[in-house]
Amino acid sequence: MNFLNFTRSRYTFLSAALCIVFLAACSPAPDQTQAVESETQDTVTPDEARTIAKETYLFSFGLVMNYRTMYRQAIMGDGRFGKWLHLDLSTPADQDIVTPNNDTPYSYAWVDLRAEPWVLTLPKIEPDRFYTSQWDDLWAYVLDNVGSVNDGNDGTSVLLAPPSWSGDLPEGLDRVIQGESDFLGTLSRVQVVGGMKDLPRTKEIQQSYELQPLSAYLGEEAPAAVAPIDWMPWVENDELTEKYWEYVAFSLPFITPHPDDREMYEKMALLGLERGSDWEPDGLDPAIREAMQAGLEDARAELLNIAENPFDPAMFAGTREGLNPTYLMRAAGVFIGIFVNTPEQSIYFAVMADAEGNPLDGSQDFSLTLAADQIPPVEYFWSFTMYNLPHRFLVDNPIDRYSIGSSTSGFRTAEDGSITVYFSADSPGEDKESNWLPTPEGPWWVVLRTYGPGETIQNKTWQLPPINKMD
Fold it and tell me: What is the predicted pLDDT for the residue at 311?
């Protein structure tokens, strides 16, 4: 499916958390990798280099941007592998992440699986509260979601394993989560129920998440430590320059090559990008380097075009089998929101325009009415979250309300069962403030998030009503 040919509509159908997180040369052990042989040629024309560079950028974008995230969270500063970073609810002051969720505080963690697998344990929680621990590999494939939708809320333990792992699952573990990289990362979410007064409980749940090496879980002696890695420092905006190719070369040894990617590896070798070797731009013809930069910019233009037009990221989040055969899907999911989740967990609708197709702006007052039979059918909860444009950050406002929905304290339903939400920069009136989501003075957009979406949301027969200007 060509995302660029999607029919324009008043909203974008999203199927995961829109959140872009703020966020060798060390080669894996020989038994963890399989060399990818390639037939190379002595020369490549600038036109060919430009095309290959564009394809390579899209192919490797998830790998490099996940390295960025892992570096910022688990390597630089006080970051450590196997340790949780628990966050509070996002506010307008938090600008590391665009389109942040304001319903479920985030918990991040990364595990280094080179020495041994790790064990994830989630606690038992209330049956009507949503939580999920999403795990991705460095390619940005969504490997699994441990929690409410897949496991219920009674708590469970699973094995996080490297690509090379095989064998019997240890007693007490439910299943194996295994990707194509020696490092895995999680964005875990837990629902805040009823507002800020519930934060102590959500923090208690977050602190109950547990990660431990398999040897510790089994009460056995730990294996020998692996060699330390001389990490390549991440510098913001390097992804816009030819420095990007150095990150690609540095990160490839952390990946177990998949047979489906053989042709891509062969093309990359024509640009001097080979597994286990540094990228040496000084050895390339200047015209080739210039063409590679043009290809990089071509790829970014295509990703930006997807992000700025109606799209269906249900195609962007999932397994290798679900996202093949194009690398564009995988790259677009990372570009739009790293750690995008799968539609079984959550589906989002980004409203970009009013009922007449006009951009939304705080100079006008708007409302949206959900009839009794239009209220989002979900197993857990739904909410609208407000963002300014072009930055897509939460909006500072006098009542400190950044999202509103089925779990909002005081949220009102009319006598006929309908619900009306008001979007305006100023109060719509005291009688309507319970259902008011403040907007900025200028351009804005709003995202409806549904958690545990019902069948009609997943099969797209449920439709979100339009936002209308108020008289």
Answer: 59
HSE on the CB side for 222, CA within 13 Å?
A: 10
Q: What DSSP element (H or E) covers 436?
A: strand 436-438
Contact assessment for residue 19 and residue 98, using Cβ atoms and an 8 Å cutoff: yes
Rounded distance between C-alpha atoms, residue 15 and residue 458, angstroms: 9
Region class of 327: left (phi > 0), else alpha (psi between -120 and 50), else beta: alpha
Residues (pLDDT < 50) of the chain are 1-41, 325
Q: How far, in Å, are 165, 166, 186, 217, 256 from residue 169 at the CA level?
A: 10, 9, 21, 13, 21
pLDDT tens-digit readout, 300-330: 999 998 877 755 555 666 677 766 547 888 8
Q: How far apart are CA 33 and CA 180, in angstroms?
A: 10
pLDDT at 35: 39
Answer whether 54's CB lies under 8 Å from 296's CB.
Answer: yes
Output the DSSP codes for 87-115.
-----TT--SSBS--SSS-EEEEEEE-SS
> In whole angstroms, what is the distance from residue 380 CA to residue 345 CA?
10
Token duo for residue 345: 């967990």
**Is there a contact between 426 and 441 (Cβ–Cβ < 8 Å)?**
no
Query: Residue 108 burial by CB count (10 A; 0-12/13-18/19+): exposed, middle or buried?
Result: buried
Q: Mind listing the pLDDT tens digit for each residue in 124-159?
A: 999 999 999 999 999 999 999 999 999 999 999 999
- Strand, helix or coil for residue 450: strand
Integer Cα distance of 56 and 322 in angstroms: 20
Other Cβ atoms closer than 10 A to 297? 15
Contact 165, 117 (CB under 8 A): yes
As a whole number of angstroms, the distance between CA 245 and CA 236 comes to 14
Cα dihedral value 230, 113, 318, 236, nearest 10: -20
d(CA 68, CA 232): 10
Phi and psi torsions of 103, nearest 5°: -115, -30
3-state secondary structure of 138: coil
Which token pair is 286?
């200047």
Question: What domains lie within the chain, and their CATH numbers?
Answer: 25-315 (2.60.40.1610), 352-469 (2.60.120.1600)
